[in-house]
Amino acid sequence: MKKNYAIALCVILLSCENNSNVKQANLSFSGSTHKTKSREKGNYFVVPEIPDEMVFAGERIPLEDLDVKERLDNELIVNNFWHSNTILMMKRANRWFPMMKSVLKEYDLPEDLVYIALIESGLRNVTSPAGAKGFWQIMEATGREYGLYINEDVDERNHAEKSTKVAAEFLKKAYEKFGSWTLAAAAYNRGMSGIERDQVQQGVESYFDLSLNNETARYVYRILAIKMIFENPEKYGFYIDKEDLYSPYITKEVEVDTSITNIYDWARAQGSSIKIVRKLNPWILGKKLEVIEGEKWIVKLPKNDKQLRVIGR
Question: CATH 1.10.530.10: does it fit domain 55-244?
Fold first, then answer.
């Protein structure tokens, strides 16, 4: 009896092991228009390989350095095998990257910097234990310094476009200070004064030569790993159809030049709901929206019923 049970258990385990090699999800990030073909491909696990050469924002990464290569390998394996998180980031990126890249272009910054937002928040309006908020994880003091409105009713750190502009301004200043995009990215995590202090104390200039705290020491490598996966997802076993990616919201803009005392009533009067108003405008936190004299707010609402339900239509 026990012998037969053991044999049956072995058969089940072998079956599970074999099935683990079967492609695991019906997705295709390649953007294939042939749904059936991409469904056949699916997602599967790949042991990633470090390339011989890599460039970030026009800067060569010194992969001949064993420490650099192994640190990148570590982050690439972590992100490559964290399928749920990586797939969701790919889906969200389709919605937000076009706007972010447009802002970076406006500031004459490299597109590669969009990956900072991915490792900061996964493109979610989250709040860190330290109090940083939004896609770009901006601290309150930094947000105010760069002109964002922050109070109990409004927090523009959750405003996708405005927070991206703040990040762009910071990164531009950091690059002007350090002359390196990898150092500018590290400064986004560590702060410009922190990176400068480390350089002076250690007598080195390159990010890849600095001894840093664990978070900043991993920071740029995490960016590089995500860049590698996003630029060649099929190589790393990710297949997602275009139609499965999250599309940009179809919206219209409404100018608000007088204070709104009850945003719930205002939302219903617009044929919407507070749920949808906050989804499209996550910077609106309270029950009212105060307008300072001479200024106005731009609030996004659904343009039609194609994505988000418009009440009463």
Answer: yes
